[in-house]
UniProtKB/TrEMBL annotation:
Main enzyme class: ligase
Entry protein name: Glutamate--cysteine ligase
Catalysed transformations (reactions): L-cysteine + L-glutamate + ATP = gamma-L-glutamyl-L-cysteine + ADP + phosphate + H(+)
Family label: Belongs to the carboxylate-amine ligase family. Glutamate--cysteine ligase type 2 subfamily.
Pathways per UniProt: Sulfur metabolism; glutathione biosynthesis; glutathione from L-cysteine and L-glutamate: step 1/2
Domain of life: Bacteria
Assembly and oligomerization: Homodimer or monomer when oxidized or reduced, respectively.
Any GO MF annotation of the entry: glutamate-cysteine ligase activity
Gene source species: Devosia algicola
Keywords: ATP-binding, Disulfide bond, Glutathione biosynthesis, Ligase, Nucleotide-binding, Transit peptide
EC number: 6.3.2.2
Amino acid sequence: MAGADIFSPPIETRADLIDAMARGAKPRADWRIGTEHEKHVFHTDPLRPVAYAGSQGIKALLEGIEKETGWVPFYDGDNIIGLRNHEIAGGISLEPGGQFELSGALQENLHGTAEEMAEHMRVARKVAAPLDIHFLGLGVTPFWSVAEIPAMPKSRYGIMKPYMEKVGTLGTSMMFRSCTIQTNLDFASEADMVKKLRVSVALQPIATALFANSPFVDGKESGYLSYRSHIWLNTDDQRTGMLPFAFDEGFGFEQYADYALDVPMYFVIRDGQYVNVAGESFREFLAGRLPQLPGEKPTVKDWEDHLSTIFPEVRLKQFLEMRGADMGDEKSVTALSAFWVGLLYDDIALEAAWELVKDWSLDDHDMFRREVPRQGLMTPYDRTNVYDIAAQAVGIAEAGLVRRGVLNAKGQDETVHLASLEETISQAKSPAKRWLDLYHTKWGGDLAPIFEAAEL
């Protein structure tokens, strides 16, 4: 049952807070690749969002995939809200507006990531077709407002939505009409985590530019190449952003824990129910002074839940989560993981990436984060632009993948999964730019064709 309590020891010392992240460290031989992606869902007859209930709803889609795969359903109350594959620890879950998310199983290499994506889409399409449910690979749904998108019956979102409306201007757009790709990667030690985190934070806006794929919103041009990334700039700045303290001397797990302690809470799970503690302090919870649970102190699971409600551009848990990319087509899902694996899982590439970014100031980081959603690869920087930086980063990643030397059955190494990025570099155009070209030429200002063109 979703939300059911899991036995967890109480937090006894500050070390317990740090250990919740530090115990993720593992030797290189055990490093894996986790890829997550969200897809918009829509009906075509007529063109409209998909509701949860009904014979053609999200619930029916989940139940159909359960029958097709044998994956185990989980619930919020009486409502099925996802599926777990216990054999390989993958799963399907729902975002607030019905965005259909695959949390992929841990893969040894990128060939496995691509195969997983292909199989997931094969099953999803097979089950969805009779329901007139289709999947859209864009960073933001191009037509519907938040009010027009049916909400999924998940308790945590009932807590998050009203809080989002208080702390940011576009938080509900993030919840209901955005989709991302996320890559999760391992670290060997605290020092390895620090270097990877710094490189990936600095380069996250570069990934945003490469994968920019949300130039439309509310049926028209948004004014941004990645409107999804712009949304995040206006979503609760206490739990988002570029982690400037990560570049301080002495940064490590303890400093990240201090940061997380000061991020306001959303909820605590007790007796299988979500307790609304939105805006409260985890520090006060540690002291037993949480107003909703007076005298009660948190468990390690409470802390891990809290860490999962923080949304910086790179998130630290027992691994590092890359969070800067718009959702795209199938190849782009694996390409994001290929980009980051090439940069972070090869020592020479990691050092080269650090050389690329080490002299950037915090003001530079902030400028990239704020300007890239609008200007993308053409964002100017120091007599050059983000395109030139992106081309260097893709080259470093490609060399890193070559050195990994992991071949598929056809004898191809992992660089084959960078093809979509190489297309972006060769054209100097992100997917968003290519959609805009079609919109202004072939489509004649009509946005409806994008639902067929960007269908997964």
